[in-house]
Write a structure and sequence with these properties.
Structural class: alpha/beta
Strand order of the largest sheet: 5-4-3-6-8-7
Number of helices: 22
Length: 528
């Protein structure tokens, strides 16, 4: 080992003739690092609360085919994330940490795939640096612990691209490639089950453009093998067929509306100009992104043909995905999770090229970058653990402690995503709002989600989507009514006979309304 190598990073520079450590040990180390703070912060709203809440409904209802949000079929996304999160909650308990095992799985599998296949194509040194850069990138570290679909689908998209490119190069070399090809199609199928058509469209675009750009067009047909297509169909198709048979309008809603119309139309969340991701990607990948300036698309003098093609794959992957997601107006930053893998490789390629001497200033700069990145990861989680105050965890636990089984619960003016999970509510919660407001269709929020789901279950919708003029019919009967409302919507609740505020937490109030007769109550003005 060169004298300048710190012991903790000596594994990045294996000595000639020494065998590397077992893959399972490296995978375990990456998993433990990404999971080290998985349960330290509450669920953030709305995203984490929404997806963890859907998984909770799946677990407590026992209905694993159809995801539901407040009892209504939630067909905005496929079920793989909910299956994984619900299964994790069954094993580890219904809590935020258990829900985060699904994105953690996607991150870990993607990192393993990047290491294994890059090692075959570019060498172990670049592969190790790739994983180090990847898992210490704060954006990736945070995404691995964030309860939404972006990291899970990104992991499977990465595996599909890596396996497909590996299969293409094996076919070019005249070597057996069927196993890699089946792995690529199976990963794409899991990507489809994680977030929809993007799971197969992105890998397909990247691979086709790369093969055309590197004059391997004939290989495209080899990748469309019946065996690979059969593996894809076997994994991806059954769920869609089963749901379509149960809900005839599902296919149009999911494929036409949720995919093509959302891609082409405005009115969805985080509308941004076309250049948004070009500007934000370097910021999202700090402190590693400046190293990208040291990478190159062209072949280097000491490159092997494989290493050159693999680097071109990574640049193609980065550019194609960046352009693809720059087309629609809606540009959530989570979309960039799919390009973190090639960014990590290209950074590693630049680091490895400039740090052949362990005592060089570039090597020490790379080590410093890794240390700073790791500190940013830990500091960011610590900050949000202490500073985030928009969750309803404390209020939900109070409701769980005081509410008797069977006591009705109602939400006023908002659907509080995290409360059913933390309060262990076993039934859908009626939500009082102005459900005839024409602006609902123009805003990409919780009200639109519930209204769009209503046609699939009209009876459930009639019970849970309660207009303000029929606000508190639920208070009829011998049991008290528990009401959750934002502070600016409390006045109508406070005017009810027997109403007592139990708790106010983060501008959300919990009220207990004593049992009452069936006399009409005054309408409650629910804020939109």
């Amino acid at each position: 080992m060169p004298a300048g190598d710190p012991p903790a990073l000596s594994a990045l520079r294996p000595a000639p003739g020494l065998r590397s450590g077992p893959l399972w040990l490296g995978a375990l180390a990456a998993f433990v690092w990404l999971a080290c703070s998985i349960g330290l912060r509450p669920l953030t709203l709305p995203d984490e609360g929404r997806y963890a809440g859907v998984a909770w409904e799946m677990l407590r209802s026992g209905h694993w085919l159809v995801p539901t949000e407040d009892g209504l079929p939630f067909f905005h996304k496929p079920p793989l994330f909910y299956w994984l999160a619900a299964a994790s909650m069954r094993v580890f308990g219904a809590n935020a940490g258990a829900a985060r095992l699904a994105p953690l799985l996607g991150a870990t599998l993607g990192a393993i795939g990047l290491y294994c296949i890059s090692k075959r194509r570019a060498g172990e040194r670049i592969a190790r640096w790739s994983v180090l850069v990847l898992v210490t990138m704060p954006f990736f570290f945070g995404g691995a612990q964030f309860v939404n679909l972006d990291m899970l689908v990104a992991g499977f998209v990465a595996l599909a691209i890596l396996f497909a490119a590996h299969a293409a190069l094996l076919a070019r070399e005249g070597r057996p490639h069927r196993l890699a090809l089946v792995g690529a199609w199976a990963a794409a199928a899991l990507g489809v089950l994680a977030k929809g058509l993007i799971g197969v469209v992105l890998p397909g675009l990247v691979i086709v453009v790369w093969l055309l750009a590197t004059r391997q067009a004939r290989t495209i047909l080899a990748l469309l093998s019946p065996l690979g297509l059969a593996a894809f169909a076997l994994v991806a198709v059954p769920w869609f067929v089963a749901v379509q048979m149960q809900y005839p309008g599902f296919a149009h809603f999911f494929f036409v509306y949720q995919h093509f119309e959302r891609f082409a139309e405005s009115g969805f969340n985080n509308a941004q100009p076309w250049w948004f991701f070009i500007v934000t990607l370097p910021l999202l990948t700090l402190p590693w992104s400046p190293w990208l300036l040291r990478s190159t698309f062209k072949a280097r003098a000491d490159d092997t043909p494989e290493a050159s093609l693999w680097r071109q794959l990574m640049w193609t992957w980065l550019i194609v995905v960046l352009v693809f997601f720059s087309i629609p107006q809606s540009k959530p930053v989570g979309y960039m999770m799919a390009v973190i893998f090639p960014v990590a490789y290209l950074v590693a390629d630049a680091v490895a090229n400039r740090t052949r001497d362990g005592a060089s200033p570039a090597f020490h700069l790379a080590v410093t970058s890794a240390a700073v990145a790791a500190l940013i990861c830990i500091a960011t989680v610590a900050y949000y653990s202490l500073a985030y105050h928009r969750d309803n965890t404390a209020l939900a636990r109070t409701l769980l402690r005081l509410r008797a089984p069977g006591d009705p619960v109602v939400f006023v003016g908002e659907y509080f995503f995290d409360i059913p999970l933390h309060a262990r509510l076993a039934e859908p919660v009626p939500v009082i709002s102005d459900w005839h407001d024409p602006s609902i269709a123009k805003q990409d929020n919780w009200r639109r989600e519930l209204v769009e789901s209503a046609p699939f279950a009209p009876a459930v919708a009639a019970a849970v989507l309660v207009d303000a003029e029929h606000a508190f019919a639920l208070r009829c009967g011998p049991a008290p009514l528990w009401v959750v409302a934002k502070r600016d919507a409390e006045s109508g609740v406070a005017a009810l006979p027997g109403a007592t505020r139990v708790e106010l937490s983060n501008r959300v109030a919990l009220w207990r309304v004593g049992p009452g007769g069936c006399a009409p109550a005054e309408p409650v003005r629910a804020s939109p």
